[in-house]
Amino acid sequence: MNSPTPNWRERAAALAIDGRALVDGERIASASGETFDKHSPIDGRRLGAVVRGRAEDVNRAVASARAAFDDRRWAGKAPAARKKILQRFAEGILAAKDELALLETLDMGKPIRYSLAVDVPATARCIAWYAEAVDKLYDEVAPTADNALALITREPMGVVGAIVPWNYPMIMAAWKLGPALAAGNSVVLKPSEKSPLTALRLAEIAVAAGLPPGVFNVVPGYGGEAGEALALHPEVDAIGFTGSTRIGRRMLEYSGRSNLKRVYNELGGKSAFLVFPDGDVERAAETVADSMFFNQGESCNAPSRVLVHESIAADFAARVAALAPRYQPADPLDPGTVMGAIVDETQLDTVLGYIAAGLADGASCLAGGRRARAETGGYYVEPTVFDGVTDSMRIAREEIFGPVLSVLRFADEAQAVAMANASAYGLQASVWSDNVHRAHRVARALRAGTVHVNQYDEDDITVPFGGYKQSGNGRDKSLHAFDKYTELKTTWLRINPA
Ligand code: NAD
């Protein structure tokens, strides 16, 4: 095992945590003065106090966002001017790279190497990409007779509430902020109570970059308090939500109970990974292990349901199990570590509960299956591989959100597709076959927002991300994300003959 780099430990010890909200360009306490203690999942250490926002705090933030939108201090700027400020925001994120990476790792437990190499650069790239796009988008002129002109224009929605999860706190926030801010909206962001720290720093960086006060506010707090108040608020025009399917359902109810605000849900997944005997089985095993165990398995698109042709299933499961020890959890502050801590004790118990359910249902555990590093005071789980899983088992159907992979068997292509599609979710899928006809056939038949062929990890801000069925609606990323944060307006003009 590599020894921890003292640098990160020292920096972590010296880090000052400011858990105040950011509203109208200022860091502020909650109206009630209430806070909650944020602990690190790495070792259980208390990181600091964070504002426990409630309805009054949300009201203040929404009022600030509304005022900023209504006086057009942001929406009224030329797109090229918004671009410049957002580019400075992206540069500021990169300039604060080490601090943001450290905060993310301490807050939610992912390895520092990935916070540095993935989360910070992806966040900056997302903001910069939407900034660069916004002065290159043209509106439309409809085909009309000589006596009329019809303009079809996009306008910002107004106030966008962004409610995000803890697994990629900065990236999930950026997927909302990038298109919403570039389009001219004001945003109130409610980060997860399990990972609020980087959102607050992002907002400070945005203000320092020149984003006018009120355009980007952050109110930390619990889902049932700050989150609910934001989703019910009559002055919020749209909610960009990423989180569980259970809470996504509530977002639709909140909208129905309040002002019919637009709701865009990016929800859970149980993505199928189909391996046919005519595919590159060795590379498939490497890829599924890498993708499944990345981010401690806490990824909405983790390929947790591996469907393998019965002729190669035992061999495939054994290969993946043999790879699992590579991902053994270790100290997240050690740059050599590839798997870190589970976000908190509740999530640890959920993951261990699913492992127990798999064993009780008769699946065979080929690797892992236990808590690790309990002596650190943190929450770690061994990378776990189950074979002999059947469709009816809970571990095959429900999202676990931890490092637990299930291998199921199919007899032929039709059964493979039917099994893959027999899920309430439809976020991603992967098909492994060197037969080009089969690969296309199966890719077309799979009901998922993204289908990978002979790979899994390709991803970029240029392509949409989101799900079919109960994995959500609308899409994050790409130019399509502007659809969520803009209204289409038709303007008819009459032109008199000379
Ligand atoms: P969660 O649904 O528990 O919480 C998400 C956010 O909603 C948090 O900020 C939380 O505080 C807030 N919230 C909770 N209850 C609320 C309520 N009653 N009213 C308003 N807000 C409320 O999800 P989580 O555990 O933070 O994240 C994990 C889930 O997110 C997984 O299901 C995962 O698949 C999903 N996810 C999806 C995507 C995607 O793009 N599809 C990406 C990442 C994560």
UniProtKB/TrEMBL annotation:
UniProt KW keywords: Oxidoreductase
InterPro entries: Ald_DH/histidinol_DH, Ald_DH_C, Ald_DH_CS_CYS, Ald_DH_N, Aldehyde_DH_dom
CDD domains given in the database record: ALDH_GABALDH-PuuC
Matches recorded under Pfam families: Aldedh
Domain Aldehyde dehydrogenase as annotated: residue spans: 30-490
Gene3D superfamilies assigned to the protein according to its UniProt record, in alphabetical order: Aldehyde Dehydrogenase, Chain A, domain 1, Aldehyde Dehydrogenase, Chain A, domain 2
Protein name per the record: Aldehyde dehydrogenase PuuC
Natural source organism: Rubrivivax gelatinosus
Lineage, top ranks: Bacteria, Pseudomonadati, Pseudomonadota, Betaproteobacteria, Burkholderiales
